[in-house]
Amino acid sequence: MVMPEAEFHATEQRIQNSNASAQEKRQAIRQFFSGAHKVGTDKQGRLLVPDTHTAAASLGGEIVFVGAGRRFEIWSKDRHTAAAALNDEIYKRVAVEIGL
User: Fold this and answer.
1) Angle 52-53-59 (CA atoms, 0-180°, nearest 5)?
2) Which of 16, 31, 40, 75 is most buried, judging by how many CB atoms fall within 10 Å of its CB?
3) Nearest of 48, 87, 85, 81 to residue 63 by alpha carbon
């Protein structure tokens, strides 16, 4: 998941405002921030994804950028295709519910 800095910092507040217990909030904040990395681009404008994130997301070969509101996600093409197929019925149900 890639998000602007303001959205990144707002995530902590959303965790703090959640109904989770104090211990759950501390753990969620700890895990969220410990896994995060500020990234930049190279001279050609390509996003530089840390090796740890590349490995965790199985990014190799073809990738897709998936818009997600105020952020976007980077998926391997194969994993995204499989996840989209699994979640197609959920999307259809929500789309009907909201009138899409």
Assistant:
1) 110
2) 75
3) 81
* Cα 54 to Cα 78: distance, rounded to the nearest angstrom: 14
Quote the tokens at residue 51: 């090796």
What span, in angstroms and rounded, lies between the C-alpha atoms of 27 and 19? 14
Q: Considering Cα of 6, then 11, then 16, then 18, what sign does the dihedral take?
A: positive
61-99 residue pLDDT tens? 899 999 988 899 999 999 999 999 999 999 999 999 999
Report residue 65 as tokens: 């950028």
DSSP code for 75: E
pTM (predicted TM-score)? 0.74
Handedness of CA 20, 26, 30, 33 (dihedral sign): positive
> Are 12 and 29 in contact, with CB atoms under 8 Å apart?
yes
